[in-house]
Design brief:
- The chain is mainly alpha-helical.
- 60% of the residues lie in helices and 3% in strands.
- A two-stranded antiparallel ribbon has the order 1-2.
- The longest helix is centred in the N-terminal third of the chain and has 14 residues.
């Protein structure tokens, strides 16, 4: 099994799973479940030493992938321990998924943006 690239992608059922679990067992509105993640993405968080080390290791392996560089290498490098990492685009994505109860992940412009790199790489 490949460890990198589009050949590692499996059935993207996590989002529909979150929706189903929320509908069956949840007590909070679906959008509320995303609030902490959206806040961390938008406002940022301080990178821990362990995560910084793992991030640096991944950076060595994944820096050739443009989308990884754009998202996870601010300033062209992995964040250092204690550095504030913000990912506002991810916050917007999570907000759209939350507000649409998962539909934006599977249909529409967000779904197309997620799938577009797979089509460009000739993924099956």
């Amino acid at each position: 099994m490949p460890t990198e690239g589009w050949d590692t992608v499996t059935i993207p059922g996590a989002v529909s799973g979150w929706v189903a679990l929320s509908q069956r067992f949840g007590r909070l509105p679906f959008t509320d479940l995303f609030e902490p993640a959206v806040e961390y993405a938008e406002r940022g968080y301080l990178v821990s030493p362990v995560i910084a080390m793992q991030w640096a290791d991944a950076t060595d392996r994944l820096r050739s992938q443009p989308t990884f560089r754009e998202a996870f290498m601010p300033g062209g490098r992995a964040p250092s321990p204690g550095e504030l990492f913000r990912f506002p685009d991810q916050g917007k994505t999570l907000s759209r998924i939350a507000q649409s109860k998962g539909e934006a992940f599977y249909r529409g412009d967000l779904a197309e943006k997620i799938a577009r790199p797979a089509h460009l790489k000739g993924a099956r």
